[in-house]
Amino acid sequence: MRASSRRVTRIVAELSCRPAIQCRVFQQPARPSPECQLTSKRRWGIIAAGITAGIVGYCAWLILTDAPAYRFLVRLYVDRYFLKQTLREWGVLAPVIFILLQALQVVVAPIPGEVTGILGGYLFGEWLGLAYSTIGLTLGSVAAFAGGRWLGTHYVRGLVSQETWNRMGFIVEAEGAIVCFIIYLIPGLPKDMVCYLFGMSPMPLWVFALVSTLGRAPGTWVLSAQGAQTAAGNYFQVILLTAIAVAVALPLYYYRHRMLRWVQG
Fold first, then answer.
1. Which of the 8 DSSP states describes residue 203?
2. pLDDT number for residue 19
3. Dihedral sign, CA of 80, 84, 86, 90?
4. What is the Cα–Cα distance from 106 to 91, expressed in whole angstroms?
5. Which residue, 26, 202, 240, 258, is most buried by CB atoms nearer than 10 A?
6. Secondary structure (DSSP) of 92-107
7. Residue 127 domain flag
8. Is 153 within a domain?
9. Domain count, the chain
């Protein structure tokens, strides 16, 4: 009888504690364990490696088999008259495809932005290439910003590397336009991933769209001008422009961590 009474007392005590535990769990949701974060990063790494290997393998197959698509691309590169004629035949579809490609490389980032920036200047000229690149980059940045705001911290933490989060995580509390402008102006920072981080910050979308576009503008213009001068065969100007850009960007890149600490305050 005494044992039964103790058992009943223990059950009542457990039931009385259970609501408090549920309340505490509801108020402070458990963070994913380091093992879960590592598994998520490994999964994204495998997916990215698979996509890259597939693209490289497909390109190698096109070259080795001398496929019609490969011959078409080579002719576009060596025959400028054929390139301009092809763009003229595509009409409005050509800039639309390029703008979508620029936006996609921000959201998914399978292609370095430097490649598409030079490609825009090569295909459309310096100023049209700059305009189309700016439109595409802005659309992609806004989409990534909205994705970060909609998906939240859990998804973004799994998307960015731990190093990027430790270095740039302060962005989620940033409100100032100056911080956003400086981050997009400094070369060598993961600007595409930063879009997702700003999505979790209190910054309004229209402020982010305007300031990030202004911060990207100098680098976008340099890439577009390089592509345009390459298409025109002005290789000396390409070298000169590249040298000036490197001379300006190198100090910014070298002191990027110090500038980030200054911006972070």
1. -
2. 45
3. positive
4. 25
5. 240
6. THHHHHHHHHHHHHHH
7. yes
8. yes
9. 1
Burial 127-141 (b: 16+ CB within 10 A, else e): ebbbbbbbbbbbbbb
Question: What is the Cα–Cα distance from 191 to 117, expressed in whole angstroms?
Answer: 14
Q: What's the average model confidence in pLDDT over 16-42?
A: 48
- Which one-letter DSSP state was computed for residue 174? -
Closest residue by Cα to residue 194 from 107, 262, 72? 107
SS (H, E, C) 159-216: HCCHHHHHHHHHHHHCCCHHHHHHHHHCCCCCHHHHHHHHHCCCCCHHHHHHHHHHHH
* Strand, helix or coil for residue 186: coil
> Contact 44/159 with Cβ under 8 angstroms?
yes
| Segments forming the whole domain that contains residue 187 | 91-265
| Cβ neighbours for 240, distance < 8 A, ≥ 6 positions apart | none
Better-predicted residue by pLDDT, 105 or 42: 105
Query: CA neighbours within 13 Å on the CB side: how many for 89?
Result: 6
The per-residue pLDDT for range 200-249, each reduced to its tens digit, is: 888 888 989 999 999 999 999 999 999 999 988 898 999 999 899 888 88
**264, part of any domain:** yes
Contact at 8 Å (CB) between 137 and 220? yes
DSSP 144-160: HHHHHHHH-HHHHHHHS
Number of neighbours of residue 192 by Cβ within 10 angstroms: 18
Q: Per-residue confidence at 126, pLDDT binned at 50, 70, 90?
A: very high
Contacts of 220 (CB under 8 A, 6+ apart): 117, 130, 133, 134, 137
CB 213 within 8 A of CB 245: no
Integer CA distances (angstroms), 176 to 1, 9, 199, 262, in order: 70, 58, 14, 14
Q: Which two tokens stand for residue 190?
A: 């993961």
Report the distance separating Cα 90 and Cα 83, nearest Å: 11
CA dist 7 and 23 (Å) reads 25
In this structure, is residue 244 part of a structural domain?
yes
